[in-house]
Amino acid sequence: MNRYCQLLLGTVFAALALGWGSAPVVAPAKAKPTTTIKMVTYGQMTKHNTHRLAAVREAARQAILQTTKAKSSRVPAVYQVKLPTHMTKKAGLAKQGLRMPLLKNSFKLTHVTVPYSALTGKIVNQYLPKANRTQKVNTKKMVALTFDDGPDKTLTPRLLKTLKKAHVHATFFEVGQSVKRYPKIARAVLANGNELANHSWNHPNFGSIGTKKTAQQVMRTNQAIYQATKTLPQYVRPPYGSITAAEGRKIQQPIIRWSVDSRDWAYLNAQADIKEVMKDTRGGDIILMHDVHKQSVAAVPTIIKRLKAKGYKLVTVSELLNNQALPGLQYFGAHDSRIVGK
User: Mind listing the UniProt keywords for this protein, alphabetically (predicted)?
Assistant: First the structure.
């Protein structure tokens, strides 16, 4: 081998030794940090309270419908999804909400994440972000206006204008067949910051029709309200306040009664309505009125004005009960809850 070849080979070997001409050495990519989801039992998050666990199931049904963008025809199916009843089962505290594992179901979901905002007052505060925890409220100067039997084509919009002008929110217990007839008005109730709840399909006496028919009344109305608003109503008010213990267990929603009956349905007189409400109302009361009588709607501006003059703040049922109404219980006021049927 001549001198030239020896020099050429030496140069090649040196280049290989130094890594010249080879692929650049790339540092390994840093692995993305994994998010750890804390698992807690339903017993821990509800303090082993079966009513609280029923409320978690209620919130999960809403989340399932919203996650799958389900049509109203699927509302009955969501009540067939097997949701947790045992306190030893676990769910995860994820950033977006409570991540609940699901058994095989017709919605084809392996889990559902329930927003923490839907669990305020349902699970204990320590498992909620600070923004979603309940705070102590003073109900001595709080009352809730509630209206039954709507929506009415003319009177409910008129009442909504009155409430908006007075900067007051109320809770509307609506009849399913009227919601189906006037879905835009049902949506307007919510759009103005009020609450919308279930008052049966066509106003029968639950106590006299039996558990099966009562459940059908409630389900059909839940379906109508969901079709109109894309939300399930949280509360049920039985017509005439009549409901049995068996019906309360079957319905699986909080029952809202009242502590002040305006008797507007009997008087059909605005001045009599005003007098009755002002005579009986105290802090923490739930006031019963109807938005299907023109005299009742006409009485509302004066009732609001006089209650405010006495220092009362008019709020929704959820505000009055501090978001802590639970299935299986019936509520007559801020400090009066009982087992349904008792």
Answer: Carbohydrate metabolism, Glycosidase, Hydrolase, Metal-binding, Polysaccharide degradation, Signal, Xylan degradation
Specify the DSSP class assigned to residue 236: B
User: What is the distance in angstroms between the CA of the first residue and the CA of the last residue of the chain?
Assistant: 110
- Convert the pLDDT of each residue in 120-136 to its tens digit: 999 999 999 999 999 99
Catalytic residue numbers read 148, 290
Asked if 102 contacts 112 with a C-beta cutoff of 8 angstroms, the reply is yes
Q: What is the pLDDT of residue 95?
A: 95
**Residue 170 sits in the same domain as residue 90:** no
pLDDT tens digits, one per residue of 102-117: 999 999 999 999 999 9
Residue-range definition of the domain harbouring residue 114: 38-132
Does residue 215 lie within any of the structural domains? yes
The stretches of the chain forming alpha helices (DSSP H) are 3-18, 42-46, 50-68, 75-78, 155-166, 176-181, 183-191, 206-209, 211-229, 245-251, 264-267, 270-280, 294-309, 317-320
